[in-house]
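Issue: copy button drops trailing tokens. Both records pasted manually instead:
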Amino acid sequence: MQKIVECVPNFSEGRDKKIIDAIFKSAQSVKSAKVFELEFNASHNRMLFTIVGEPEAVMNSVFESIKTATKLIDMNKHVGEHPRIGATDVVPFVPVSGVSMEECVELANKLGKKVGEELGIPVFLYEEAATKPENRNLADVRAGELESLRVKMKTPDYGPDKIHLSAGATVIGARKYLVAYNVNLDTADVQIAKDIAKKIREKDGGLKAVKALGFEVDGFAQVSMNLVDFEVTNFDEAYRAIETEANKLGIKIKSSEIYGMIPLESLVRAVKTTFKADNFKSDQILEKKLWE
């Protein structure tokens, strides 16, 4: 079986199209990796895309994009809604087929060492690759964001013990599939989004495997979520929970968006739970049969 890994690097740039394109094209320069699904947002001032292929090719592709981001993004000038600590903010490796989580952890370490030594950027390992319990949760690593690291630098896993002057720091790790899902409310009151996010996220007693924050995006309040295990809580369940809370306040949902790629089984699960189609399975999807 061919070894296939996915990587979804996130960069702190969502406004300058020239920089966005340059970073994306750098990743595409490694022809043995597939690079697609570029997403960027001006309010978050953030971009991401998906890289898929054999482990070494994916690592080389993401390293090329990190090099370009380091040259072009100046974190001293960065302002955006999304939490961040660096030009290349977070780099997760996800096992797809023929690859174990342990191999993705090895890949995270290999890339972390390379980024630390060759680019002079401090690297923190998170999730399955974490070497310290306090760094397992990405939100804990980014607590206080770059401004906090400038005041009190944590000890990185790789690289120097001080932040890069323009690129800040980077978080690299290995994890399961993550569904990035945003729900936009029909109100400009961002406090409502913050309050709903607090009610539905796991750390405050809400839905399991859900991380959520409230932002203002394009003039509307947004509940922005990372669903870290769609088999525990899927995006349709998160939507309904937000809808319930919003209705209590007389607020309607304006729209929602899946950000980046998601597994087919997440869509299948949504069909099952939304329409009570208990026997529905991915084999019933025509295109899937054609791909096999």
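Record 2 (pasted manually too):
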Amino acid sequence: MPITTCVFDAYGTLFDVAAAARQAAGEPGFEKLQQKWPELANHWRLKQLQYTWLRAITDAHADFWDVTQDGLDWALEATGLEGDPVLRQRLLDLYWELQAYLEVPKMLADLKAGGLNTAILSNGSLPMLDGAVQSAEIGDVLDDVLSVESVGVFKPHSSVYDLVQQRFGGDRDEVLFVSSNGWDAAGASGYGFVTAWVNRAKEPMDRLPWTPAHVLSDLTTIPQLAGL
């Protein structure tokens, strides 16, 4: 089946999750962060993801913003940066204004010009996602922003992927699902989507029952994968 819909994970896929720590590290007053921001960013993202998985399997769902704050607090303590409320608040504020990767605007514009549906499917809450979309100025090339909050469980639960067909219709193999998370791309593959894993960090393939159909270094070739 030809691809009719391209759906993207948000954090780490369209938006650079390390941008908040990197930007804060260059601002006056946060000199302690300058040498530790890569470690902080890595810890923050990993704990954020781990907490979504744990909440999903224990049926203890929470807003992604709460999970994001919990992950940051763990990361700050792990890097010896806890106890600075100004730094903590600045990092949280910047998370609402994450930078999009450089290729994102043109890639999405090319998909829309080619007549494809485009959407975000994210663990993020709608207010968080709206902030990132507005900051990146990509709202005009997205048909919708879908959040797990409408089903009350985080990815890779199948009910989250159900949201795509509920919104756009069609068969599962008409959807190209793109994520920077190997486990997310694998889960979507098991669900029946055509998948692309954006492996910017050149990580090993996750050992899971399913594998993504495509492995990319960035999003530049997504229009070609979609058949344009």
